[in-house]
Amino acid sequence: MILKDRREARKMIVAIGCDHGGFVLKSAVGKFFEGRAEVLDLGVLTETPVDYPDIALATARTVSDGKAEIGVLMCGTGIGVSITANKVRGIRAGVCNDVESARLGKSHNNLNVLCMGGRVISPGQVEPILGAWLDTPFEGGRHLVRINKIAAIESSTFSMEGEEGRVVVFNHPLVQHKIGIIRDKNTSVKEFRELVQEIAGLMVYEITRNLSLTEIRVETPVAPTTARTLTGKKLAVVPVLRAGLGMVDGILQLIPNAKVGHIGLYRNPETLEPVEYYCKLPQDIGERDIFVLDPMLATGGSASAAISLVKKWGGQKISLVCLIAAPEGIEKVRGVHPEVDIFIAALDNRLNDHGYIVPGLGDAGDRLFGTK
Questions:
Q1: pLDDT (tens digit, 9 = 90+) per residue, 107-119?
Q2: Residue 47 · residue 40 · CB < 8 Å
């Protein structure tokens, strides 16, 4: 409902929060946003001592969940709330107790949460700091590359014990360039289809980087030499119909000996839950490393159901390969299948009221096959 109201009113929503040390600044922050934005005040309401992580976490999550576009946090120095906010996925929080920090924090770092210290600055300094932050555009370019690297670090998790899977975001320039083109609503069906294959190929090139090799002897036209070849690792590609089909050929160009299975699922438009209608997998699926292909990891329901089906038929070593994912989808899959590696080309902001990824690229199946 909040998202719907925001679209109708076309008014920015800002979440603000503070502890007792930042309370002195909150009135000035609220006054600044009067007429500019709808304010979600997440506390505190008095100067009674509280723990700043509680307020900072609630405010940061409000921004991360898409219930607010930006956030403002205040504590004694701004440091504590900044540290806390940056633990939340998708948050770029920085301490800005002067105008220049606010300006550079926006132009270079695209801060979506600004933090200030009530024991460092006065209420009179709030307006120029917030004004510089809001009025300065993000420069993009090399700064976007750096932000993407931060997102890759944030979205990649590794378990030393090997009990949990990884979430890996591919920030290779070629991948990001092609993702930008397929996002464009004006990209033709032909070009969209070709680019999806290319992106899938680039991704699997990296995913298979650690395949084991063995040495062999070969005769070149000049002399005998030692070369390396794959040790015969068995691989399987399992697209989730129908959109997953668009990724298959790009992968098979690199690993043509992989067997291909198919899983048919559709999403109930009312419940958003997956419904199975087809499943055909290689008979030796249990002996293979399996790549489940699902271009859009939105709610995560279809991907989770597909992985469950593969497990039901004996699959063990499973990775999920997606083009674009929402945080909700990642959390769903990790909750049901924590050991599965998730590989994605782009991590987007959130889902909208209809379960579509924002900004996303629309319905991947429709765009692949020209059905809409």
A1: 999 999 999 999 9
A2: no
